[in-house]
Amino acid sequence: MENQRSIESDLGYLLTRAGMLVVRATNEALAPLELRTRSYTALSLACDRPDGVPQRQVAADMGLDPSQLVAIIDELEQRKLVARTPDPNDRRNKLIVATAAGRDLCAVAARRSAEVTERYFGSVDPAALDQMREMLGQAVFPDTDRILR
Amino acid sequence: MENQRSIESDLGYLLTRAGMLVVRATNEALAPLELRTRSYTALSLACDRPDGVPQRQVAADMGLDPSQLVAIIDELEQRKLVARTPDPNDRRNKLIVATAAGRDLCAVAARRSAEVTERYFGSVDPAALDQMREMLGQAVFPDTDRILR
DNA sequence: ATAAATGATTGAAAAACTCGATGATTGAGA
DNA sequence: TCTCAATCATCGAGTTTTTCAATCATTTAT
What we know:
DNA-binding, mainly alpha, 3-stranded antiparallel β-sheet, WH-like_DNA-bd_sf (chains A, B)
């Protein structure tokens, strides 16, 4: 006898739906900053690494085709939130490095983003939430010892 | 001092990335059945309710614009996996009801889908997984006492 | 009976995705 | 040193997805 469960308990379904909801709410929350979830994520990845992050790696971290990042970075660069600097060690690479203005905006955006998360997950036990982060991190970054903080 | 965390511990980011990964892997797993994650989800929602589910509710449950469902249901209907039956109580509604063939295919697809989930989350404690389902369910179906099974 | 609301459908425009091609650069090996 | 294959960012074309307004049929409220 099969343990038949409804689609509404399917992890893929739940993940996708929850992701959609959070992304949409985040897009609204970031609209006043003229950021979308996408551009905020890219900016944030740049802010995480003061020395800059290869554009290609931003694409990989976002699960996007590298060609999709061109427009996103173009816009951030035009707004002077990031700069494309040639990697001195490998001039094929463009290192995306956040400007001071970029870091400032990112901090504001991070607060708004956190408010959205709070709205959806504020009522659950923080330890359980950390555990969920842990599980998702394992799924998203397999074979990695990276500690999320 | 702010508790500054990297984007990689942001729940929205993790949810989105994990969802993408699972959806893509599920699409591949379902390709031999000529189903995509989208059509499988719609079919599954129909299978969950023997008396049929209003097309509009399928759209709502999937977070899609109703117009996007037309093509999805069209295809399932052409393949005789579901039928659009007029709701006797409100003839504006189309009730999507799964056929026997639809239920059979859905069962096969569910197994393949579960294998994908197993691949990404098989190594984590089942209780923690249930807890994650619970948390995501709360976020996706707020103000609902629905018990996921 | 009329008017407002709701559901499915269509079509058009915008956004996102995919993929192959290109030029610049690097690294390996003859 | 001189190819040659590989890698990176970018571009462009073609496809798919999303968004949204309009339409028709039906229902509900007035």
